[in-house]
Amino acid sequence: MFEFDIEATSDLARAGVLQTPHGLLHTPVFAPVGTQATVKAVEPRELREMGATLVLANTYHLYMRPGDELVRDFGDVHGFMAWDRPMLTDSGGFQVFSLGGLRKIDDEGVTFRSHLDGTVHRFTPEKSIQIQHNLGADIIMCFDECPPPLDREVVRAAVNRTSAWAARCVDEHARSGDPNRQALFGIVQGGIFPDLRAASAETLVNLNFPGYAVGGLAVGETKAQMHATLDQTVPLLPANKPRYLMGVGSPEDLVNGVARGIDIFDCVLPTRVARNGAAMTRRGRLNFRNAKHATEHGPIEAGCTCYACTTFSRAYIRHLVRAGELLGHQLLSLHNLHMLISLMRDLRAAILDGTFSAFASDFLAHYRPTSKEANAPPVGQD
After folding, report:
1. What CATH number belongs to 4-268?
2. N- or C-end of the chain: fewer Cβ atoms within 10 A?
3. Which residues are catalytic?
């Protein structure tokens, strides 16, 4: 069911097709993040219209509210949110480990207090998999420990736990799940340390997952460190299986990730910056709180075919942002997601026709990240 076929390559970049129970994923692909079974300010209908094929939902948040068993009773997360295309759920590990003083880790799992009401809960690898079985996404993730990437001893301990937990996730998925219905991906950890990444990758490859994720990036390291880690880690993963870079989604990161052999991406960035009044374009980010947009007749981005760009002026969108109107958030979210999804289509087309290197070089030469982008903090969940 989860066969992955590579149609073309251009150096390390790949164009492929992943079969899932809810349809084909043409890679490289960007997944909008629907943390609580909704992509903020965007309807499933609009996601389909812009060409989105994969949506991510969050295990921790759906377990806390409304509850994974309730979602199961509505068929699964597809039925609950009326999304009939492929879905992915993360394991909840990132959220649990982000709770700081509200959680306590041991080798068996994590005990934590809810961020909603302070009640005590416990996640183990087995529990995370059981929740994800109830949620019913096509791609599910191993429960892992996502540590700060720069502290070697903390990272070493996290790699050891992640490796042990991955084996337990495999056992639980085989015991209580359906591998033909849900593909379980392993997550490579190791911070910025090549030897720890290599050790993590070796363990996971030996477990023979149908796909592999690179986790623990975009959580505090520099862009150069991220690229170096991908350069070292990606070649350690099987060439015939999909590779997923977790939580990374700025335009230049997508291009750089595809160039290094990544197939799947997700990030909250497009909807989060939209709520802060910013648009993502192929030349950089635009802040619609700036006065220079106040009298502009043109669209957010020339040539963009999204609803916001084909219907409204920059001046109108700036007015909405300044007035705090929800439509401003909606239109910027639509544009930002459309921009990333169309960029991925263009990257895929360039791989297929043999022009990827030129396309990527031209894009990166003209893209101008803001200082905030260049030194961005972790984006977490939306």
Report:
1. 3.20.20.105
2. N
3. 90, 266
